Each structure stands twice: as structure tokens, then as C-alpha cells.
Amino acid sequence: MQIKIETEILGNLLFEEDMKFKLHPYEINIESNSEIEKPIISINKKITNYLEFLPKIELNKNNISSIILPKEDYINEQIEILKHIESFGAIDKGIKKINWDNCKIIWTPENELEEKELPIREYSRNLNYNIQPKIISKDWLRNTVLYRKQLQHLSLPFSFYRAGVNYYHSFQYQEAFINFYLMLEGFFANNQFKNEKVKSEFKKSIILKKSINSVVLRLKEMKDVHYEWFITTCEKYNKKADENGIIHFLVELRGNLSHFSMGKPNKHRNPFADKDFHSLAFIIMSICLFASIDLRLEPFRKEKLYC
User: Fold this and answer.
1) Rounded to the nearest 5°, which phi and psi values hold at 22?
2) CA distance 150 to 159
């Protein structure tokens, strides 16, 4: 059985010719002809003990079939090769990205038996958010402009939220987290940048604590992967799963993700490990969204919440 992964190469690139070469146990191929929109890179490998890696069709109690996809550990080394080409290609040739996280997986049987064991020949790892369109009304536009003077101080820090959401929906969760953090830092850190001083300032803010508590309640109601990550992370730092626990790990992880170390690569920023920070980005994005509501109301309150 042959297993191939293929994906696009992004960048302003010219290829002298289509390329194919073998490096045991892999065959690496790049297609760049005029018939395809973007160059395609593929890595092919022969697998002998393949049964546990094949997709399977299962029937539920109502005899409705569904396809069960296997864990993709068996393509890890091929993905690592793509990451390696991406990193060196960025420096040497201006490659912007190789879409290794959105690759197509193709199975090619080599005999009749293998063909019978294969329910589907290919599938794609297409990561995307199904974002519903939001209606922009004339009232919203008028009010946004009408109250500009009262709220113009929010324009710059809110731009970090905009950047964070764009990174989040592009699955760049570490970049998303940093931008969301900058929004909170600008509003609530009071020009403090040392970890312990920032934590102290964060704990003084009524708006921030109120927003964090709203997120904690939401996580407890959802009890999903983000809630599990929240509980596990607080335990890791020996903190209670409450507002102080969140403040602690937000500040600590901001420090970790602002650095890189060859000695401890898993502790710091890692562009290849964005999925590990999905829940962190989701939690801080939710905090920023709740905080933005009170921050917009604050100029119109007789009794201010912010301190």
C-alpha cells in the first residue's frame, strides 16, 4: 500500500521544472505546471503493516454508515519533512508557507486485496471555521461614528483584538494569544511589565475580574476541551480554577511565548505547535470580548467600574 500526502506551496516562486526524487523510503514530488493554481508538493511512502492506519466504515444502531478516520501518527515524519522544507525554503527561496496542516492524504492500493480493504482512496485535512455572516445595520454605523469622541481611546487597543481574531481564525493561536494579551495589558496593566506587578494590577481591575469570572462560568457550563485545558493548566501551576488562576497562567504563558530556547523548545514559542495553544487563545479571546462590553459602557456610567 502506498500512502501519499500532498499540499500547496505558497510564495512568489518559479520552478525550473517539475521535480521528483527518491530518498528511501520516500518519493518527493513537486508539480508546478500552468494547469494548477499553486505548486503542489507530495511525499509518497510504501507501508506494509497498513491495516490499523486505514479509514474504516462503521454502521450505527440505525444502520447509518459513517467513516472513521485513523489517528495520523503514521504521517508524522512526512509532515516533519514538509516543515523542514518550509523553514529552510523561507530563508533560501522566500517560501511563505507549505500547507502541511491542510494536506490531502491519498491511499494507493498495489493489488486487489489492498483495494478491497480500502473504503476510501483519499481525504483532506481542511481546517476552517464555519463563521456565519454578521449584519451591519445603518444604526450600528451611525452610532459607531456618533460616539466616536467618547470611545476613540478604545480604537487602538481594540485593533489588537481585531488582529487576534484574524490570527485565531487562521489557526495561528500563539500569535492570536499575544495580540489578545496586548489588549488586556494596555487596559489593565497600568504601564507595568514585570510578571508579578502585572498580576497585581490585573487583580485590581473590576472590569477584568468581572470578564474572567464570566468566562469561568461559561467554561463550567460548556465542560468541553477548553474547560479540561483550563482545569489542567491551573493544576499545573498549583492554582485554583478561578480568576486568580487564569490571571496567573495568562501572564506566565505570555512570558513563555515571548521567548525561544533551543534547550527547552517545548516551553516557549513554537510555530509548529499552534494547536497546543487553541484553548489558551479561546479563553483570552473570550475575556477580551466580555471586557470590551464594559469598556464601551464605562464612559457613560456615573459610577465607574474601572480602577
Assistant:
1) -110, 135
2) 17
Q: Which three cell numbers stand for residue 285?
A: 479571546
The proportion of the chain whose per-residue pLDDT surpasses 70, expressed as a percent, equals 97
Q: Which of the 8 DSSP states describes residue 106?
A: E
Domain count, the chain: 2
Residues 17, 109 share a domain:
yes
Length of the chain: 307
Q: Please give the Cα distance from 141 to 84 (Å, whole number).
A: 47
Could you write out the DSSP letters of every residue in 38-94? S-EEEEEEE-SS-GGGS-EEEE-TT--EEEEPPPSGGGHHHHHHHHHHHHHHHHHH-
Whether residue 66 is predicted with pLDDT greater than 90 in this model: the reply is no
Q: Using the 8-state DSSP alphabet, how is residue 120 labeled?
A: -
In a shared domain, residues 112 and 225: no
**Predicted pLDDT of residue 307:** 52
195 or 47: whose pLDDT is higher?
195
Q: Residue 73: give the domain boundaries.
A: 2-124
Q: At what angle do helices 206-222 and 225-236 cross, to 10 degrees?
A: 120
The structure's pTM equals 0.85
For residues 226 and 278, what is the distance between their CA atoms, to the nearest angstrom? 8
Quickly state the pLDDT bin for 99 (edges 50, 70, 90): very high
Same domain for 101 and 79, yes or no, is: yes
On the question of pLDDT at 240 being above 80, the answer is yes
Same domain, 85 and 234: no
Considering the domain boundaries, does residue 118 fall inside one? yes
Residue 28's SS3 state is strand
120 falls within a domain: yes
Which of 50, 96, 104, 111 lies closest to 79, judged by CA? 104
Indicate whether 129 belongs to any domain: no
Do 46 and 190 lie in one domain? The reply is no
For 113-156, write each residue's pLDDT tens digit.
Answer: 888 888 888 888 777 777 888 899 999 999 999 999 999 999 99
